[in-house]
Amino acid sequence: MDVVVIDTPQLGDRSYLVHDGTVGLVIDPQRDTDRVEAAARDAGVVITHVAETHLHNDYLTGGLELAKAHGAKYLVNAADAVHFEREAITDGQSVRVGSLIVKAVATPGHTHTHLSFIVDDGERQAVFSGGSLLYGSVGRTDLVAGADTVGLTHDQYASVRRLVAEARADAALFPTHGFGSFCSSGPASGAGSSTVGEQLSANHALTDPDEDHFVQELIANLSAYPSYYAHMGARNAKGPGPADLAVPESVNPAELTRRLADGEWVVDLRRRMAFASSHLKGSVSFEYGRGSNFTAYLGWVLPWDEKLTLVGSRDDVEKAIRDLSRIGIDSPDAAVGTEPQALAPEAAVDSYPRVGWEALLAGRAESDTVLDVRRPDEFAASHVAGAVNVPVHQLLARLEEVPAGKLWVHCGSGYRAGVAASLLQRAGRDVVHVDARFGDAEAAGVELARLQRDGVRLENAKTGERGAPFSGRV
Known about the structure:
It is a single chain. A 6-stranded mixed β-sheet has the order 1-2-3-4-5-6, covered by helices on one side. Strands 7-8-9-10-11-12 form a 6-stranded mixed β-sheet. Strands 19-24-23-20-22 form a 5-stranded parallel β-sheet. The protein is globular, with a radius of gyration of 24 Å. By secondary structure, it is an alpha/beta fold. It contains 15 helices and 27 strands. The longest helix is centred in the first third of the chain and has 18 residues, at 149-166.
């Protein structure tokens, strides 16, 4: 048995090709299936089976199209209400893939119908756990419906325990989520590999003997997740069509100028430093690059299903089209180029200051506002004293709540603040982009505060003294 990992760091997920040297099974393929097909060619194997651990919430599957293209059997839980032909599989059922035996194990929790797969070659085992047992954590349990979250969290607790009981301790563990995906119930562990035995001693879902405590703790620590998740499950149940990865013909200058004037969404993919110094007025900044969470934040922040025009180098545009196709943002237009004035000579060009913490300390007036665009849980843990919190994913809906005057906009690393600053400037606001790591703020002399667990009072991070009752919205 050999396992080939197809990594999608842009979404924090992994797909897998598991094979015996002749035929293979693909598990949880993403929509851009050419990567999987390249892996099969490199391994010299034929794809005979494709399997889904669950109907995914964070991306569109390529499973149906891959199975069609290769005449493969498409293994999907018999309990899933799908609108396409599949090879229905149920809990405890085994399927032979060449010399490999693939056993389905019901592991509800991440979804009601979640399956994991234990693959055995007679000597070794591998466990493909989808959004069930992750490295150091488990898949989040609040994506189906709010009323189902408590029950699904109890299910998750029981499921991972059943899974490790059915697998060998030396079985290699291959989850789909947990590498930065918002589908994880906790932060990425940083581990690149693990075994069932390692998780038995390191995973809180397996080491916490109190089920009620586990349930309460997991739910209490769930944070916000992208709004586009609401569209993924239904489309996966229908069967997404193939991804169109072609780069379109570049939009001409006159048309790009019109789109900007009409308030259409023109997305600048260049580095946020370049955007701050010069950009087409009315465009917004979603810096493209590895580790930027470009896909998740664009799909989360901008209105769903509105036409986009991507602006940037051909390489960035091509990669962005691929990434966006994975979440169902299909066939955006493009203006290929990195010089704003060359792309639309008749359009206005704009800019805004981009600074560090020292400049905030030196330049902020008493009437100015520090706007923190991180998630509420991040803000509650620690924030600039006196800052206002409006998460970037809520900014468009809450623009009227943002205080008047100059805004010093920051986040955790500078990326989300770059997005927010561009949105605010587009709305006519006076912005300064604080492009600095929040973790460096206190060392630079910025006074920090934090919400206590009751969410009512502030405590000064330097002196430990309590401040006035907090009245800002978080």
